[in-house]
Design brief:
Number of helices: 7
Strand content: 15-25%
Bound molecules: fructose -6-phosphate
Largest sheet: 7 strands, parallel
Structural class: alpha/beta
Oligomer: single chain
Order of helices and strands: EHEHEEHEHEEHEHEHE
Radius of gyration: 17 Å
Shape: globular
Amino acid sequence: MQIQVHDTAFEAADRVAKILLDHIRSHPRPTLGLPTGGTPLPVYAQLLSDFRAGRSSWRHVRSFNLDEYVGLGSDHPESYARYMHTNLFAHVDCPANQWRVPDGLAHDPEAEADAYESAIDEAGGIDIVFMGIGHNGHIGFNEPGAPHDSRCCCVVLEPETIQANSRFFSSAKNVPTKAITMGIGTILTSRKLVLLATGEGKAAAVSSAIEGPISQMVPASALQRHADVTIVLDRHAASLLG
Ligand code: F6R
């Protein structure tokens, strides 16, 4: 596991953007796993500015998002499909059929999760999964207790996650209670993992994930099982590391 600590959140995000751009530039058919949330926004801003400067193209990129709320379609302002469209894909040259988010409106969310897993397999797996981390150590929407070999599935969100994500909704009661997520096992089968965490609020989760025992109660601790993991932190998120 490689741990990089940067002075500011901007520098940490810049580092992650560079890792993704190096891969996009050097691979004929790059396949990425991508997160939503507050942490990746400066990374997406960097990717866009690189694209606008003509230094990168997304024409051959395929991507699979980590998760989506059950019940929200791509026209919902808080859906992850809308987030990805607004913050990245509306502005780059990636064909619409090459970036995918689980369908939150699928009639059968479990079947959608299975289809999503199969689509990842058919794409030949994911080269780099870029992810954030929840305050409770979740990755994707794999909450504490999730098995480390889980595949794409439909999950129930923890009250703490609903509370944390209510900042994007008018109130906590409008946050969906279920999501479709890549499983921890799905994430671990990817060739490279990059986790970005910034801010003091993530320090405890980062320390348990990296320095604590591998435990189902800390989903991100599963990353310790992977051979190619880069953890990119600002100094606040790194403040509890020994
Ligand atoms: C989002 C996702 C989540 C977030 C995590 C941190 O697609 O998979 O695991 O990465 O909840 O969210 P932020 O960055 O908003 O603190």
